[in-house]
Amino acid sequence: MLILSIASVSFVFLIGIGLYWRAAPLFNENTLYSLFRSSEWAPSSGKFGFYPFIMGTLWVTLIAIVVALPLCLLTGVYLTEYAKSSVRRVMLPLVNILAGIPPVIYGVWGIFFVVPIVREYVAPRFTEYSSGYTVLTGGVVLAVMIFPILVSIVSEVLKTIPKELKDASLSLGATKWETIKKVVLKRALPGIIAATVLAVSRAFGETIAVLMVCGNVPVAPTSVFDGGYPLPALIANNFGEMMSIPLYDSALMFAALLLFVIIFLFNLVSRIILNRIEHKYSS
Amino acid sequence: MTQHPLISVKNLNVHIDGHHILKGVNINIPDKSVTSIIGPSGCGKTTLLKTFNRLLDDTANVKVSGSVLVSDEDIYAPDAEVTHIRKKMGLLSQRPYPLPMSIYDNVAYGPRIHGVRKKSELDAIVEKQLKDTSLWSEVKDRLHGPAAKLSIGQQQRLCLARGLAVEPEIILGDESTSALDPISTHKIEDLFVRLKEKYTIVLVTHILRQARRISDYIIFVYMGEIIEFGPTEEVLLNPREELTKQYVKGFIS
Ligand SMILES: Nc1ncnc2c1ncn2[C@@H]1O[C@H](COP(=O)(O)OP(=O)(O)O)[C@@H](O)[C@H]1O
Ligand SMILES: [Mg+2]
Prior knowledge:
Chain A is mostly helical. Chain A has one domain (51-282): MetI-like (MetI-like fold), CATH 1.10.3720. Chain A contains eleven helices and two strands, in the order H-H-E-E-H-H-H-H-H-H-H-H-H. Chain B is of the alpha/beta class. Chain B has a domain at 98-167. Chain B is built from ten helices and ten strands. Chain B has helices at residues 45-52, 82-87, 103-113, 119-132, 136-139, 152-164, 182-195, 208-214, 232-237, 242-249; strands at residues 5-16, 19-30, 34-38, 62-70, 73-74, 89-92, 170-174, 200-204, 217-222, 225-231. A six-stranded mixed beta sheet of chain B has the order 6-7-8-3-9-10, with helices on both faces. The model of chain B has no long low-confidence stretch (mean pLDDT 93).
């Protein structure tokens, strides 16, 4: 066990170091600050500003969480607390099947379903023109993709809340819904955070679906109806053609490194939050 | 019976998953006294206790028939309001289950649910209940610290305080001392004896010595049926039924 965990941790570090090493040539020409803050993306003239891609990534991720989390919580609560056991027995395996659908299918669904809806119905209410290929679309598609895993983990977490804890609240005269809101969800919070992190980290990898519906414009979004260009999409889209342009490969490696660091930080921060909560409330 | 019964159970039958768990239970539990339910494990003690505040409602495949009157009100009547019924009883489970919040918020939880908003009022309730359960001096400096950080004995007294904060008439305890050390057990037992001035207390226990120490009446349950009910001394020292005799002597467990 120990050897395995050391191996996996050092593997993570090796990937990080490898990416850094391949990205290093980029640092000779650009300061880290300009890489992060500059919005200019013109590889052929040696301009590599990552700001749009970082922002594209964050927007899509945030929208996905904002859309998916409340729905998943409600679904999880329904399945574990309200649904008849017959419904539960059918629904949970079904949700797991959804989790197995390849990302490209979600992408196609996004193009033929979500993109037109955003273009025709949603965006016109708020803005003048939108192609429908927006960070909102990407966020919604990503939300649908993380939905199954999020629902199934959230349900697992909710199932672990002891019946006696709920009984304690009920026996004080709380209604079932009050009990769920004030006790069950509160107690489940660490697990819910962990589930979200896991789902999002995994979804980052499912580049293709998001790449198909985000528009892939290298400009930092300023509203949900702007297009965006998340880091994974940048890497996947340009990997083939990078050889001819100097430093392009380093730039893409840097994109990968950024993604790596973002996911790492994301996990780290949630780990810290989890520790805080556990420290405070666990018994 | 000298006292008026506070809980009156009439021909109560409980089926869970098609198993007949409680069989034609009739019992009158006297007001302002401690009544212990004893019997071998699996005989239906917990189930009987849970019928008193309708905690079986949320269990799947449960059928309850018959009636349970609390202060002459049938709690299984179609128009009975379940939150109102449960508010009348504090429940103390086998292990303490503090709510995932601070000590203060645990005690204030019930009153808040029932509409108490004013901080001064909540402060007063919290202080009173913690004093009544002899916790105040131990926790008054960390009221806003997590309840989970208390020792298990303190947690159980906190759960009692939490239950008392909704001003119940009845306290239900399900082997509430079985997870506690002897000193904490004594504290809880003392509290029960003190609290029966104001409350009707029904306890499930499998410790005969405990039943003897603190209860006024004893109900002996065997395989879902009430075998014997009477004053503590009579049931334990001079049982009428053969089964009770065997259980008290330790032949059945
Ligand atoms: N939720 C349930 N589902 C199925 N069977 C149950 C459930 N609760 C209790 N029982 C059964 O009812 C019987 C009595 O249980 P219980 O009241 O917990 O006994 P005791 O508290 O006296 O040990 C046991 O045989 C138990 O298996
Ligand atoms: Mg029991």
